[in-house]
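Sequence and structure are no longer studied apart. To make this concrete, we show below a single chain and its fold as tokens.
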Amino acid sequence: MIENDLCKYINNKVEETIIKNSLINNNDKIVVAVSGGPDSMCLLNVLCDLKNTFKEKYNICYELFVAHVNHMIREESEYEKEYVENFCKLKNTPFYYLKKDVKKISKELKISEEACGRMVRYDFFEEIREKTNSTIIATAHNLNDDVETILLNIIRGTGLNGLTGIDYKFKNIIRPLLDIKKSEINKYNEILNINPCIDKTNFENVYVRNKVRNILIPELESEYNSNIVNNLVRMKKLVKNDENFLKEYTEKVLKNCLIDNNINSVKFKISVIIKEHESIKLRIIREIINYKIGNLDGIENIHVQDILRLLENNIKGKKYIIGNKFTVEILGKDIAIIY
């Protein structure tokens, strides 16, 4: 591909991704998560370039704000902050900065540095979103990140949803680069002399994701199928269609089985769930749990299976308790409650 054509291709592809998936609406204010690395610098530059295109073609105007986090782990962090800040000045884009000792915080919270870094970043992005009255947060996840996520989910053990990888939009987070390959991003930066910062730890095979990126995928490409990345993306799209149908069907059944849903408890009909296919039964139970506690953190398949057995036995007064998270209880012949 000719160099100028690649830049045009990436702009057009990101434009298509945004429009097709309704990622940006008129008058949106967008917090762009920018580390200074190749992906986030490409994202920021493309979103800046597309402003006029969106205004002229779609009557969509948007504002950009950049959020940058220094984890205080690498010596290069101070330089990266200056680099991103200077780039923002060139683009006339507001710059917001956070410096946090992630190593120290991770030890205090007894979690991994990776998990702690992610928590610190996203808390800051949300803080800036509220501060700037922004509507969405844009992150620079690309097509290769998507494939890595799918492979990681397979390795760890996953259901159908894990095969759908990363969503274009999740709550108020958008991923406009999700259809762009890492190699294309690197070439884009090279052509435009953006000179992004390079995090050397990405090449250290300490974290599992780095091993998948640096060892597993190249091995799959060289020894098994040179087109593995594109094939996994095609699989994702097929699975996503099935997953969307199952979600929609589950929601319909869920509406029929709910008796009362409030902040303290969810009351539901047992018979509406029990008559469904095993797959739908388990999905409905997960959704009911999600209604009650707002997430499925720490909820394993064995818990869902146990709750299903409780409902199938349908004995009044019987309970299933998961620590201090919630309790499921059979109230009567066809009524259960989670509280």
In short: The chain has a mean pLDDT of 94. The longest strand covers residues 62-70. The chain has two domains: 3-226, 242-338.
